[in-house]
Request: fold
Amino acid sequence: MWREALPELRRIAEDLGLEPRETQFFEVTAHELYALAATGLPGMYSHWSFGRNYERERTRHDQGRARIYELVVNLEPAQAYLLDQNGDAEQAFVAAHVLGHVDLFGRNAFHRQQRLDMDRVLAAASLRFETYARQHGPQAVERTIDAAHMLMWHATPEEMAPPHPPADPPPDPYAPLFPGARRDPDAGRARRRADAERARRSLGERDLLRFLITHAPVEDWERDILATVREAALYFLPQARIKILAEGWASFWHKRILRAWRAPQGWAVQEARLHAWVAGPGDRRLLNPYWLGLTILEHLAAQGVDILSLAREESDRSLVGRIDERLVYSDDTLREVALQIEARREPGDPPAWEILRDALVRAVPALPEVDVHVREWDARRLVLEAETPVEERYARVVLQALARLWRGEAWLVAPGQELKGVAV
Reply:
């Protein structure tokens, strides 16, 4: 019955200004839905970490501590997987939520960076990885994927930054006053050669997977795995940067779509309960992305902000940064936290609402958490540099994996730290 409502729900969404593209809806079992959620995409290659993700989330589901109602994927066409245990009212609610997600897929700049054929890319790679496991052993393939996964959040779609300072300094406006002080013409050429060599060697590169694909002394099958994991990382990175926006956006619009829809008798009550469960602060408090994103978007809309335009370039950090004093003290949950901060505030500290806003901005995941770049390398030694101290135990594990790919030593230099990994 809920499928019969899809055309009407889509029409209402479009009347509200949304532009959801074609979407395929599938009803799947809890096992199938949690298997998809564990990998994030259909067609994903095999790896032990996906089994861990599945067991963790399925256990939470079986214990009644969490439930996934849907998984929507930005492909062409978009794909929405709905839990077959949902009733008709729940499926209609979820379908309205999905329409909000699919609109943002085409609206937001981060989503527009995603490849819409990633399911086919990964399905083809999965077959190749199975061949590599037969040829080189499953443990060798697992270790290579392990190393690539450790570095995947260091991938970036941006090209490597140009050399700095610029190769040719700006003209000296005072040069005519000192005719005897001539510039050395060889200095400019030497600087350009040094910059070209730096670019050729990818010194300063922050996309560590891209660097390894280009320069690491690995076999072709390993390079293929690194390249595939990097493509997957570039797909997942945008949605990691706008999770609060995406869930808040879908919640904002499912409320309005369902409000405008003439639902069958009794459905509205079920949908209201489901909204309170999904988009209320609940036990997760301020960090529930559904609630936080929805609360900010509703505040902005009430202030007359054109959120359809705002969402085109917004990220989680910029959205959370829009929290202001009026929002904090008009929302019961935010006001309660602000009053707790106020009770502990020292003279000279910023206002409590600013402290709260800044704390929420800091809580938004920064990807990567530590900015690392290539400092130097040769045939046996790779040296990375971080601008802030790193957690030593985890860094040593990553360096060990890097050293294996480099067939030598991997070093990390950070303020007050010099860590080393050696190939074994």
In short: Strands lie at 23-28, 70-73, 78-83, 372-377, 381-386, 409-414, 417-422. The chain has a mean pLDDT of 89. The chain has 18 helices and seven strands. Residues 37 and 359 are 29 Å apart (CA to CA).
